[in-house]
Amino acid sequence: MTENQYAVTLDNVSMHFNMSSEKIDSLKEYFLKMVKGQLFYKDFVAVSDISLKVKKGEVFGIVGTNGSGKSTLLKIISGILTPTTGTVSIDGKIAPLIELGAGFDGELTARENIYLNGAVLGFEKDFISSKFDDIVDFAELRDFLDMPIKNYSSGMVARIAFSIATMVKPDILIVDEILSVGDFLFQQKCEQRIREMMAGGTTVILVSHSIAQIESMCTRVLWIEKSKLRMLGPTQEVCDAYKSLQNG
What we know:
Blueprint: E1 6-20, H1 27-35, E2 41-55, E3 59-63, H2 70-78, E4 85-90, E5 94-97, H3 110-120, H4 125-139, H5 154-165, E6 172-176, H6 184-199, E7 203-207, H7 211-217, E8 220-225, E9 228-234, H8 235-247
Parallel strand pairs: 3-7, 3-8, 5-6, 6-7
Antiparallel strand pairs: 1-2, 1-4, 8-9
Helix pairs in contact: 3-4, 3-5, 4-5
């Protein structure tokens, strides 16, 4: 039996959400309408019938205007969301860099959150301890380790979260606009770590509003627009077409 050459396979994947079609001003009104059967919803399609295959070791980009479904698609690939229809096949361990710091407890210190977040990602306490200094040194926040994370700036939270998520080399790295967080020097540091993972064979799926970043890092690109696949192909072809829409 030959080894599967694809890290990610999506087959006719769609994601629908129920959105309230009317304004409800209070919880009491919501329950009254629910009891009376007067709650009405409209169907919102975030992702519509997307099929794609990402090869192992490939650096795959996703572009599209705001609200087109890029982040929803990443959450489906990451397993955070289950698609309404279609199938998702993943071959390998995923490290999703989506909504960095979402699993942190604001009342706990950064030191405590490193262990908490590491446990959420499935790492044993002893393993996290062995990587602790590497995590802190990469984040460059040793002087703030015992400060409650609620006092951190969003950039500082991103530093810690990125450092934890990338402390081991995953098979598949999912990156959603992470390189736009924090100061310029730290962005370069994050990009360098991602490039090291790429060189080591990690499959990378990247969403970025920076077309220059997509052009410099990706081998193929998916353009999703208003939930639908608009174009899929070599990076320069897709990016040129996308830029011509923006400039048109």
